[in-house]
Structures
1.
Amino acid sequence: MANNDIALMAHLMRRAGFGASYEELERRAAAGYEATVEDLLNPGNHPSLEMDVLERRFVDWREMNALEVNQAYWTYAMINTQRPLEEKIALFWHGIFCTGNSKCEHGRQIKLQIDMFREHGLSSFRDLLLGLSSDPSMIFYLDNCMSHKDAINENWGRELLELFSMGVGMDGESNYSEDDVKECARAFTGWTITNAIPRYPYGRYEAGFIYNPSDHDEENKTFLGETGNFNGDDIIDIIARQPSTARFISRHIYNFFVADDVQVPAWQSTPPRDEEAIKLLEDEYFRSGYNIGSMLRVLFNSDSFKNARFAKVKSPAEAVIGTMRVVKDYTSPKPGLHNLASNIRYMGQDLMNPPTVEGWHTGGEWIDSGTLVERINFAADQVGNLELPGVQDMVARVGSDGPATAEQVVDRCLELLGAYELADDTRAQLIDHVGRGGDLVPGTPEFSLRVGQTLQLIVSTQEYQFA
Amino acid sequence: MTSIKKDPVLVVLQLSGGNDALNTVVPYGDPLYADNRPSVRVPEDQVLKISDYVGLNPNMGPMKQLFDEGKMAIIQGVGYPNPNRSHFRSMDIWHTCEPDKVGTEGWLGRAIKEMDPSSENVLTGVNFGRGLPRALAMPSVPVASVGNLASYGVLTGIEEEDQRADALDVFSRIYSPAMGRGGVVDYLSRTGMDALKGADILSTAPDMYSSSIEYGGDVVGQYMRNIAQTHLAGFGTRVLYTTAPYNSFDTHAGELQAHAKLWSETSQAVGDFMDDLREHDAADNVTLLVFTEFGRRVHDNGSGTDHGSGGMAFVIGENVKGGLYGEYPSLEADKLLEGDLHFNNDFRSIYSTLLENWMGLDAQPLVNGSFEKFDFI
């Protein structure tokens, strides 16, 4: 099999999922690139996690109230899912439609929202916005339950436009006015929840969405130039057909799946990094009736995507899960999962508890001297652990052709980790280092150790921090 | 050991989760305290009294002693306008001094930049804990973030020392800035080299340290010990920061028991820290700030207290003029702010005092405004 097929598959799996072991890459490359894209876009073709079995091992997964429990569950799901794009798209929407445990203090309630992203994340953006507008944790997080027909609270109305659909502006222009924010908030009066969410003093219990017609503002509203007695779903219909919405979602998809672009607040005045790719996505948004899966299909099959290898810094979740999927640890329930999940937070991404409703800043902003050390040490500890089945597989494969040169060992390790590429100088440094230890004879403990150390040095490089 | 560097040093201990002000600096002399705290109250006879009106939580013995020595300022009723009761947002406001928008730069990150503009010392600021608090975040300012001083470093998982040394040698060559490749990669390289340099220096601190003080085994105790070790090693570190474990002061339920343990550990750690510095004749250029993101509701919820506003802060050190500062917020119902203590003092006044009177910096650009200073230092 041609190595560039593997390299391209590794790229697709890093972006549409969380990376894959080399066997999986070979299997998927044999099936073909387009077939793999289809497979990823149809997660329902594969079984979901067997929760009834897992709950027996992790008893706190039954209630899943605390944040830490949810983070452990999500970490496990990302490692073990047979539906990688389902988890990836949930993470994508979570980074945009932020809801934070710091306010909700009810992990399960937020998990229900994440489940909604899992279920509908690849379907119509309009339906997704509707699901979000009636999601109890979002209604609570952005105070729509505090918005009444005679006293609106604009929080949800504003963020729906600014952060969740249209963005403040594009091509140097504003996308909506302050009046649009107020009218939007008016249209969503009455969209509230039964049972307030705060945990105290009565404990955690589920809230439900309820529409309260007696608290809904029935007067006419003028929103983005259209006038009528709009309700929330009418507003969403109007939002969904705006070119600014197509642009905003396309840029988010690009920034998450293709390459690091400037941060969201700069989008009003800074054009997209790859205008052609954005145009492709915008066109498909309208052609498909706002279908996210269709946009991703077009994207994954585009040259813009295929040529964007290593064009983005891994998020902490990608950094942790990508390494775990290669070393094949935590493929079944065992203690220590909470500690493993905490590494994602140590690297700066507290899942289900984003810093603000604006979510996490991405790209180079993931990295500081603290988080970089966390990344390097975490990955090096994993790939240097010769007990782990994935590491043993790699050692065996590196040695499968008999005695190897240092250059072969380095290149095979790079390939097995997911077809990584190093700068020439860096590669030369590694080869020099590996070569200094003398002959590399497979089957010896020393060989395993030196392959493990080669893997450790590779995951320490700048290049490994990119997806 | 005598500390050679005598530049002023600021140590910050962050009590995450929102410490209950009322049960820390207890207004036992106010009948409204008992009225509002039918279940979650410190009994009057246990309060460590400092005036006819207030006293400290009974588990704060070592800090009470510092107060009695005149080395601890208690700043009462600290907050900011339009208090936010979300942990993260409120902590963010304390970290960035940006109450109205979400800021990305921390006040101490800016202070470090001011003190060491070209990052000549990668250890001007050091954090103890996993992950960097936003207070220390500032583009191009390296801050070491140390999970465990005894084992801190890059590639610490390589156990065999020679092998690790070899690996670090390769690492330093790979990350060498001479290999400029532009953009984010260069940024990564610089960050990696800063981390490596910082780790190399920091790793020598524990071996240089000996002390008769035995700190508690809790996280705050161990990190305060690490801070003492780093200060005593004389690396020129000017800002040292640590955080009580993730939201531990968030006492919605079972508060009396949890709060007692938290304060007995925290107070012990603070006392041990001061004793340790004094034993090494290294206390005179250190000031410690202890703060939390908000206070808690005046009325208890039967078992704990919910998120509120109006907190307490402590400033401790040999150069501190001890005493009570700022007025204790009124507990009268009509003086409360949405059921919470109304803050009397902006937290940026504390920062401004520390930055100008202690660190010798111009506070205005670091805290985003001019705030009246205290005279506790």
Note: The mean pLDDT of chain A is 94.
2.
Amino acid sequence: MIRIALTKGRIEQKAIELLKKAGYDCSELEEKGRKLVFKLGADDIEVVLAKAADVITYIEHGVCDVGIVGEDTIMEHGKWFHEILDLNFGKCKFALAGIKGKDFYQGYTHKIIASKYPNVTKKYFNNKGIDVEIVKIEGSVELAPILQLSDAIVDIVETGSTLRENGLEVYEDVAYVSTRLIVNTASIKLKKSEIDDFVKRISAQIEK
Amino acid sequence: MYKLNKNIPEGTRDLLYAEADLYEKITDGFTKIYVDAGFRPISTPVVENYDMVAAVNQSIKQENVYKLTDNTGHLLAMRPDNTTPIARVVATKLKNAAMPQKLYYNQHIYRINSDYSGKRNEILQSGIELVGASGLKSDLLCIMTALETLKSLNLKCKLEIGHVGYFNALINEMNLSEDEVQTVRSFVDAKNYVSLNMFDKNLQNEKIRKLPLLYGNDEVFAEAFELAGENQDAVDALNYVKKLYELLKNAGYEEYIMVDMGMVHKFDYYTGLVFRGYIDNAGEPVLKGGRYDRLLASFDYDQPAIGFAVNVCAVADALIKSGKLCEMPSADAIVHYNEETYADAIKVKNSYVERGLTCELSVFDTLEETNNYAKNMNVETVIDTTKESEAAEK
């Protein structure tokens, strides 16, 4: 038996499409109600729905074997698992953004960055050799530069319309991300044939 | 008023009763396997000089080490690994001893993990080090001992073997910069196919992409030989693993072994054979080991060495998850006595012990309290030695 942890929400919809294309029976998953654990038809596969960061926790602890999760979450929370496939959906980017027309790198004062992704932000500026102060924001990060809490934000940008409507713009791209298939380090060895089979069926259906 | 903090530090645990007993049983079982294979015990201090820890093992980050200071202000570290201190002992106290040295240990290591990760900061490790010997037979001895420790747990288990010489030979022929080698190494180690593929787009070297796929059983060798091509170093490393694999297979270990030629480590610490052990219900490798022929040289004593460590905490957790935690049996009997019958009580106790049973001496003054205790602890028989003495007084 293999157990898959699937990120709730947008990734879930796309992933179910992919699973169906690969020939898995997702009827239980599509009429989910309040259930949290599902069977994929007659296949010996169980699916659990979880928040993105929890998918990683379940995989790292080995309570789930395979995870479907965004690269953004992996960059922020991930440590130890195998990243096997790029599922090629849920594409977006991390960007540094702020008030339109401002030059972020101008001036000598210590820069403040607001983000939901403090680890990604820290790594990005560490690599550039720039010291910044990071403020963690839970909700709409775009508010931080508007309220002058921060000089800029690091956030996920898909279309950029939220930025535009609030007088902000992308200063530079930090990283491109998409949805990934990850596998626990012990499962990949102990359940090799089951996981190989699953990966083969899925990878044949990934849109190029 | 000052409020006492009654909690224990993050990542540590109190163990009680059957769980505490389980840890002892695991290490006792392993110790027997090590001793039968000719290994002798070693124990080193919990604290070491920080300089040594930092200089010798680069895979351990500064922020993950518990640091203290001694009375002169020097920085100390709570040992973050067991191999380095043992190498230190061999290079100093055993410098004039006959080689090889076969040593085993059961002691804790300490590492600071991030909060709420559910990872242990205090880990009991059990393992062996074989110092001063190289070659097939010493590698075989280590691998076999590792296999026996895993098998003794009676859970589904696998030991996978690989050789860092294979990866190193292939990466050398690619003429990458040191930074690029380090990047590829960490991607292959993490079997991060996605990042490897992206990396390879710039590099145009198909071999890199295939490296992490080289795991499984016999069938791996054909693919790995193809990938090695004319690279003699890679072929040599592969031939060596194949030879070991076949020896172990013929010795009846086939169902427990696997090969992973893509097994490298983030840091260039191992120098030859490497292996990892997996058991059911543990989400990480519970056993890690390999040949490290350069470590002793950092202590000015150039000796080859190989060893492995088992994460006893992970093993215990897996055994508990698999329903193998046995509640400890109650005593077979309890003796109630008074000052006059103390000698009789000891006789009764000994008569039980001689029959291979267990018998407690009651610590209570009244028979009623003794009976209550026996009831709470599920002790079936209560022997009251005081009746006779009272009867004798009358």
Note: DSSP finds 14 helices and 15 strands in chain B.
3.
Amino acid sequence: MGLAQNIVFGLVTGSYIAIAAIGFTLIYGIVNMINFAYGEYVTVGALVGVLAAGALPLPLPVAALVAMVGGGIASLVLARAFFTPINHTGPVPMLLTSIGLGLALRNAIRLTAGQGSRYFDTETTTFRFDGLPDLSVGSVDLLGGVFVTSEHLIVIGSAVAVFVILHALLTRTDVGIAMRAMGDDEDLARVRGIDTQMIRDSVWVLAGVLAGLAGVLIGIQTSVSSTTGFSHILQILSAAILGGAGSPYGAIAGSYVIGLVVALSVAFLPTGMTGLSTAMAFLILIVVLLVKPSGIAGQEVREA
Amino acid sequence: MSLLHVSSLDAGYGDLKVLSDIDLDVDSGEYVAIVGPNGAGKSTAMKSVFGLADRMAGSITFAGTDITHLPPEEVIHEGLSYVPQTENVFPSLTVEENLRLGAYILDEVPEERRQAVFDRFPILADRLDMDAGTLSGGQQQMLAMGCALMLDPDLLLLDEPSAGLAPDLVDEMFDRVDAVNEAGTAVLMVEQNAKEALRRCDRGYVLAQGENRYEGSGDDLLGDDEVRKQFLGG
């Protein structure tokens, strides 16, 4: 496989990571906590989606909507039960709570849904573009034939739709502008009459909806199990930090960087070193943070 | 009956009591200044009126309504607006979005108020799409005041509006406050620049160590030997 094909894979990975990373970074920026249980929200979404699509059965777009609603409800209920009551204690107790909650959720899901993998039963159409010539440099083919599946297109298309809708939400609606305002300054938001708890609840719902969609898209690409979300949480976290924690636009950029680096390192690292592809994402993260500690789209690091 | 009536107020933050037994009154359309040394509790007095400091004893009423225990997001509905000393705009939001949030509690942004803010601060109309964080200190102060005026409040609380401004802008800023007051809005202003504040206001309070020390018309306080010696540098 050539470079062009791996770029396609990277864009697909970047797309579903981006949808989840936006949710993760909104929680970070507005609720002011790192939510390590967020991977489990993705898993819940994937499971709800795969059950809706398989057991009921519902067509995929409807199943995805059900997963998004399920993710939103789960996120709000969990926030109300575990995070809202300790909101005043600050970021560190909330981070620790989320690690514990993630562990508990992961095992609860494993006990109820089982160890095995489930699959979305989708019909795949493959579009091949074999006309492209090879352009070999040493062992690396810089061009080569490309194929794109209908699943690839669903994932990338969903991500683009999310970006457009989210941008409209954050810049055109009162709730969206209030979310950004709270990320800047919670006290001033209250002075303006913004009900900060209502905004936090909205962020939880939005983040859960995004996790639900990301879960379904990951499920379409691979499979659904009790660790579907957990196995992606470090990539989601890296993408959010890489982009500048709290910035949804930065999270999008960070996600595609991570997606492309992982895909390309799988392809072009010598055989036997491909296990390092996830580590490559962290290497990029470290390098970027050394050069620009606030991340790609981050503002100056504010003093505590 | 006064518009704002603060009676025997104790306030502070957590276990720290900053104010004890404070009395303050502002009448409709009146311009009142609070002056005093650093750490006197001037800003805390203002924050307790707006629900941002912990109120421990006493009472605060506004236009006859008891607001002693209201949080800021409810105080704003009563007809008073507050301009904090620093961090009084949302830096990553545009000027336009900041003004929109100034009228957040209304169903829609009232166009005539927006226009009135632009008439008062024309520079804002030219900067609508810029992030507020990129504005100069003076422009941010204007935006902060503009946001507060979007609700056409009965009382405007200003916390050190001259702080951080270049000296040649300070006079201009005081002129703007005068203009807001002359248009009928009552003003309660905390000011470090005590002489200028007392010269301009109708009435003033001198606060020190969290307690009322002196109260009177601006001119009387400026003419009082004790006040001059202790608080105005002779």
Note: The beta strands of chain B are 4-13, 16-26, 31-35, 54-62, 65-66, 80-83, 155-159, 186-190, 203-208, 211-217.
4.
Amino acid sequence: MNPLSIDPKNLPLVNGEQFQGNLSQILLLVILLGTAAYLLLQHGLVKSKMMAWAGGGLFAFAALMAFMSIPMQLESVVRICFSILAVAGGVAFITAREPVHAALGFATAVLSACGVMFMQSAYFIAAATMIVYAGATIIIFLFVLMFAQKSNLQWYDVQLIRPVIAAGVATSLLFAIAWSVSEPGEILPIKLDLTRPYSLAAPGSAPGQALPPVPESTMSQAQLSEFVPAKTSGLGRSMFTDYLLAIELAGTVLLVATIGAIVLAQNPERDPS
Amino acid sequence: MNHSEVQNLLLLGGILFAIGLIGFLTRRSIILMFLSLETMLSGVSINLIAFSRFHQNYQGQILSVMVLTIAACEAAIALAMVVSLYRRKATLDVQAWDELSETILPKEPEGDYIGMEHLETYPKLSPAGLDPRDQPMPSSFQANPNQPTSELDHKTSPIVSEVNQRG
Amino acid sequence: MANLDSIIWIVPIAPLIGCIVCAVMSFRGDKHNAHVPAILSLVVSALCALLVLVQWDSQATSAGYEIAEGYRYLQIGNVNLNLSLRVDTLCLTLLSVVTSISAMIAIYSKGYMHDDPGYARYFAVFCGFVFSMTMLVLSHNLLMMYAFWEGVGTCSYLLIGYWFRKPSAARAATKAFLVNRVADTAFLFGILMLAYAIGHTDVGTTQSWFSRLDFQNIFNAAPVLAEKHSGLLSLIALLLMIGAIGKSAQFPFHVWLPDAMEGPTPVSALIHAATMVTAGVYLMARLAPLTELTPSVLITVAWLGGITSLIAAVMALYQDDLKRVLAYSTVSQLGYLFMALGAGAVKDLMTVAVVAAMFHLVTHAFFKALLFLSAGNVMHAMGDVIDTREFSGLKRVLPKTNILFAIGAAALAGVPLLAGFFSKDSVLAVLLDASSDTMIGSHFAALLGIGFLTALLTAIYTSKAYFRTFHGPEKIPAAAGHHPHDASNVMLAPMAVLAVGALVAGGLLGPTGKISEYLSKTPLLHPHEHAEPMWLLVASSIIALAGIFVGYTISQKPAPAAGLLKSLADFGRNRLYIDWLYNVAIVQPMLSIAQFLEWIDTNIIGAVTDAIAGLPRLLGMAGQRLQTGRVPAYSLLTALGIAAVAIWIVTRASW
């Protein structure tokens, strides 16, 4: 039987109608982004300033479309700003000629994405991503870049591999994502089980047996819609109770990766054997 | 949190993913390819967090933590490999590593990117010991636009010999 | 003695162990000591064989034979492949000869093959040959005998081609193998038809294919077959006979034996003179109870033997190569044996025929081995030159070899009271007996004449070769080096043993009736009164002495320059043009067909195959473009796939 035995009809969310208005905008957004990517990427990195301007203009138009599609509230505006910043950073990242510029674009994109995450109350993830990506990874990447990068620009920094095909593939993939997002679909909003806040697994159910029915939520509909799994302590508790094994395994993987990195980076000439 | 918001977030994740994909497919520098991978992963992370928020539980965030962990591992291993690869061929070009190809394809000719509009050409000083007005400059003193690196690496022995000859 | 069964098993097993040890030594280990396991195993084998031979009288059972159960090789349903040994007086006779002579020759080989790079390989194949030969002799089953028949053929091939880098040796090995193959194919057909035929008699219906071919079973079924399907039995006997004459190098298969002299001389002595070539004779003797029911085949055998002995003697007369003289002499003497066996066509004469053939076989093994080893000594001393035109008058240089060769030659020529004299006489006596038959006696009268003529020719060419080599003015080829010397004692000692055999074996075995008495104990060979007339002995003595005198005279004269004798000499020297005829009539047409087939193979079959093979190559070339080995190309394909699947998923509802 379906372990998530919640009748969709009782759910507070309405399906269908809300999406239909956005569909055309989303498709437009996708097409614009694809065109921008094509313009920016064709025949190597930005060949003429006119193309760059055209790409930038298209991008700005897409951003404007995105703004138009949301209600004008502070939270939404900030989120959309972060989103636009993230996309702009990404575009800058893939179109930059200098690797260092590209790394800066990447940092912008990741930090903006962290801002979006932060607004989704994923504080821990946002902080960790900032530390790991924008902190450690970028620093190490830059370090390696300085180690390996020639003093001047190399041919392989500028030339691209099949930019048209790549842009086409990515655009069609994005189109598929946008289409599936715009579909009303059958996504069941699974509510937080307040008797067991950290997991969907019910206590005491042996493998293969039916789960006990999820009890009625004690919160009202309004409370539920405002609920956010806000507390980082809740995430920590969930990690170290329900997902303990997975977390420990992830730690082991990190350890193994550390050892592997040390082994791989060893200079073979200095090997005593 | 309503559907429109989730929709926007998912779309943002998708766009980041697509940008990362374009970068991974087109850039030739190994380091930038790995950065593109990280971009894709951050798009996935946004996706997961949006669903976590939407479903109001921690599962998405937990998965996001996993993504973060694996991304860190991958970055460590990848950088180690880049370093050890760089030791063998002093290049970051991913196309240089094609020893496993079925037929060794002809190398794509390395065209000159100097001719591209955005790259400025700076005026060059005439080598020391030469009169700047001494035109035309001897050919061995011409800066070779195709080899911008050569000025630093060169021992400038032709200059010395030329000066000695003049003396 | 109750454990004769196990002792008889030692006879083949010992050489097998020696073979394995030598083979291992040839790959690693001390190659120069390879003679130790070989000689040891062969001596053990010979002693065991002689022990059984001596003890057999007390052991003899009422059946006259004994099956030594051995090893069940395979069992499928009711088919049992048993490796068992059949022991009776016939096979014991040959077994003792084979093992003792091979032990002697192995000792001789230690000296002869000294310092050869393939020393261990030589002894490995040598022991392998003795193993195969003893198993052939002891087989209780015709199919098992065939297996070891091929085994000795293989060892013969390996030993003829022992110096395989020499083109003539490689060619001779191939020739021997191919000629034997023709005959062996007929042999195999004969065996299979025999099994089929026995299956259709009352005796053999309930038995499996393999056990139908047990010798005892064949002997039981043969009279039934002769009664019901005499034509089929004649055909079977003919096919079996072809196998026998192929192995024994009888006309028309005699061409391989002279070429087989390319192998090392001890090998020529053992395999191509004393033992392996007698396997055909042994097969006919073994199957005597069957063949005596088909007189027409036996007459064919006798005539083939007669023709062979005569033409081989003529060819031997005009050969210059000492080893080839001996080779043709071997062919000729084997023809004698087949003549004797053919005399079994006359009713009730089979036992005497077999006795005569086996007697001559034994004595011939001794003196022919002795002659070959002496020729080996000459070759050794002359620096591998064996052409009698290149040397002469060696009696001072090689005094001991001179004596030994003289003994062997005298025995072969039939000098009275030596081994060859008695055994040859017994063959002639059998033919004489047979010629008195009213129905088919005329055949044997003619064959008796051929026998006398051959005896004369034998004496002539033997004495000619002997006097040319050891008498006359002394002449030594340059290849011999400064100081040619006689062979070492390790080579001379086994020759001395063989010489004793050549001197006294005939006198001990023949006139005393020992061998006929012994062989008559073989089951299904019934004793038959037989007397040798005195005039035959006198006549053959005169022939032998006259032949020796003629040979001496010829050897003192230069070769005839012209005239009838010259053309006859050319005729003999060119092997009666038989090899030439085979080349023109068989080999060249086969080569033409082969070339035609090769043309078809390359241009039609090969072209079609290439075309078919080209199709995957085309496909591969199409896919080859994708395998660039570069990460971006692969990741682009992956991304394309993912995008296609994603598009399909989101749009499938509208499809």
Note: The radius of gyration of chain B is 26 Å.
